[in-house]
Design brief:
342 residues; mainly alpha; Rossmann fold; 3-stranded parallel sheet; 50% helix; globular; binds adenosine monophosphate; binds tryptophan
């Protein structure tokens, strides 16, 4: 069985701390999402006050069809419930149910120099991927900072690709606190022990927008097809050539789907095994690992009320936190009606 759902690596939150993370409803959940972030969402909910958001406003930077975005948001709630988020132990919310996130992002815009967002590595990457260079794309990490700190969350389970965004969130918090007093704590990322997962091309980060993903809830045959198409060690041409497991994406993924990955890597290094066998085994292990979650997802999808009920329960739970923080912020910066919350 896999080792991926073991305790989160990198600094373990103290029980008093609040955990927050967001995921874009911009496509089906994939192996990178699961290994980099969702496994930790699930692990952390047992011990901490956890809030997870479907960040549909962020997805507007890449999804431009209203009906499609609504469907993707619905699907992402099902994905998160199926991987093991339990509405009794965490709050699952939809970002757009809380206009205060955008209100706080605006206030943060006014304390953030443009150069800080311009130098964010993901901004450049996303433009290279062909995303429209909108003001929203540039401002994306400021909204992310607001998402997190409106809950005064200090620990943020995310993939390693989000490290720069968390760094920027801390800078924004410091800039705000310098100007208006100590309102917000600084958030830190919590990583799993997975590196940034590469896509089936074996070179770029696995990502919905790059079209190189292995969706965790795809049909078994589709998972087989995708895994069999993965690029392995490009220098291993003939079956008898020795492989380099350290550069082979398939070998790297085996780490998370079985205790025998060192033997598997050794088989590749010595050419005892071929890439086709190693891929076939990986496909079956991925299918097996996600089988119970896939079954659970199908059950949940059959209930038309489950998504909105889950989001309503999550919203009711976190609303008081949002209102308390925003009263404090409005008072500090001098906006809104004096003396009572809106
Ligand atoms: P996104 O799909 O961009 O909203 O990402 C959701 C979460 O999955 C974030 O915490 C990302 O850091 C994480 N994530 C996305 N792609 C990868 C990847 N290829 N490897 C590891 N983590 C990832
Ligand atoms: N930027 C994150 C991503 O692309 C999504 C996100 C938005 C997020 N708001 C957040 C992640 C708050 C953590 C906390 O994956």
């Amino acid at each position: 069985m896999s080792q991926i759902v073991e305790a989160p690596v990198s600094p373990r939150p103290s029980t008093a701390e609040r955990v927050f993370s967001g995921i874009q409803p911009s496509g089906a959940s994939h192996l990178g999402n699961y290994l980099g972030a969702q496994a930790n969402y699930v692990a952390l909910q047992d011990e901490y006050d956890t809030i997870y958001a479907i960040v549909d406003w962020h997805a507007l930077t890449s999804v431009h069809d209203g009906a499609e975005l609504r469907q993707l948001t619905h699907d992402m709630v099902l994905d998160l419930l199926a991987v093991g988020l339990d509405p009794a132990r965490c709050a699952l919310i939809r970002q757009s149910d809380f206009p205060e996130h955008a209100e706080l992002a605006w206030i943060f815009n006014t304390v953030t120099p443009v150069s800080w967002v311009e130098r964010t590595p993901t901004y450049k990457e996303k433009r290279q991927q062909g995303l429209e260079n909108s003001v929203g794309l540039l401002d994306y990490p400021i909204l992310q900072a607001a998402d997190i700190v409106i809950y005064k969350a200090t620990r943020v389970p995310v993939g390693r690709d989000q490290a720069a965004h968390l760094e920027l969130s801390r800078e924004v918090v410091r800039a705000f606190n310098r100007r208006y007093g100590d309102v917000f704590p600084e958030p830190q990322p919590v990583f799993t022990d997975a590196p940034t997962v590469l896509g089936i091309d074996g070179s770029a980060k696995m990502s919905k927008s790059a079209g190189n993903t292995i969706p965790i809830f795809a049909d078994p045959d589709e998972i087989r097809r995708l895994v069999m198409s993965m690029v392995t060690d490009p220098l291993r041409i003939k079956r008898t050539d020795p492989g380099r497991p350290e550069v082979c994406n398939v070998c790297q993924l085996h780490r998370f789907f079985g205790g025998d990955y060192l033997q598997i890597q050794d088989g590749e290094r010595t050419a005892r095994t071929g890439c086709v066998d190693t891929k076939g085994l990986l496909a079956e292990r991925i299918i097996e690992f996600f089988r119970p979650m896939r079954a659970r997802r199908a059950e949940l999808a059959a209930d038309p009320a489950v998504v909105e009920d889950t989001l309503a329960a999550g919203a009711a739970r976190v609303r008081p936190i949002v209102e308390a923080t925003m009263s404090e912020v409005r008072a500090a910066v001098g906006v809104g009606r004096v003396g009572r919350p809106r």
